[in-house]
Amino acid sequence: MRDALSKLFNALPSDVFSFVAGAVFSAAINLATARVDLNKSLRLPFGLLAVATFGFIVLGFALKTAREAATERPNPKQAYFNKISDALPTLLMDDSHACSDAIREACSIRLPKAHKAYQPMLDLFSSELQYQGAGSFADIQNGKYDTVLPVPYWAWRDRHAEVTNLLAKYSTDDALKFIWPLLKDDLAECLCVFSGNTIEIAPYLPPLSHFGSYAKADFRVFMSATITNDSFLVRGLET
Question: For 40-66, what is each residue's pLDDT tens digit?
């Protein structure tokens, strides 16, 4: 029924709705206030008919508007990627220091110890981690959350393909499904840190080139009232 109504109203121009809706609404008001010379016995049914017709027109207009909006609006999952991002002449970012931290947080992979990829990742880099500190590595194996060891960058770059293949198996998990599309091709440029209860993988620079509205803006204006070190503009916002 809804599709039939939608097809009917999609075939008509929008100004028809305005005209007919106005005419029917005016007739309904006139009937209700007895300004039209009509037998009293017919006044009620004609009034109800007018109101029902008006409702029908409003419903059709709503369906038409919703269908047009759905057709024009891009997929929300892809709305900010390069191919269909809106072009912005100027982008203004307030509290940019906080935005930098939020972007880094959103672009980092965190896997709890219970995740299926945690132990294989730990085994993959066990020799490099143990070399840095046998006691710290033992604490990590025992699940101590306050012990932290980074993977040396040379070991990470040498084995990032193995890491990619491992994480790809779990790319639909809640811990990865939103971050994986951003980092899957750039894992070599990430820092990996182990603790007793988490693995964190974070890019040295956030992958802002994936977001066309930001990357392709003609001008970017950054505002902050608490800047003490503007290096975050380079590392965190690719200025």
Answer: 555 566 566 666 666 666 666 666 666
Positive or negative, the Cα torsion across 213, 218, 222, 228? positive
Determine the length of the chain.
Answer: 239
Q: Please, are residues 61 and 6 in contact by the beta-carbon 8 Å criterion?
A: no
Contact 190, 202 (CB under 8 A): yes
**3-state DSSP assignment of residue 87:** coil
Q: Is the pTM of this model over 0.85?
A: no
Count of CB atoms situated within 10 Å of the CB of 157 = 14
The string over 33-42, giving b where at least 16 C-beta atoms fall within 10 Å of a residue's C-beta and e elsewhere, is eeeeeeeeee
The DSSP H or E segment spanning 91 is strand 90-93
Segment 228-235 long-range contacts (CB within 8 Å, at least 24 positions apart): 232/97, 232/100, 233/96, 233/100, 235/100, 235/204, 235/205
Cα–Cα distances in angstroms (integers) from residue 48 to residues 33, 44, 55, in the given order: 13, 6, 10
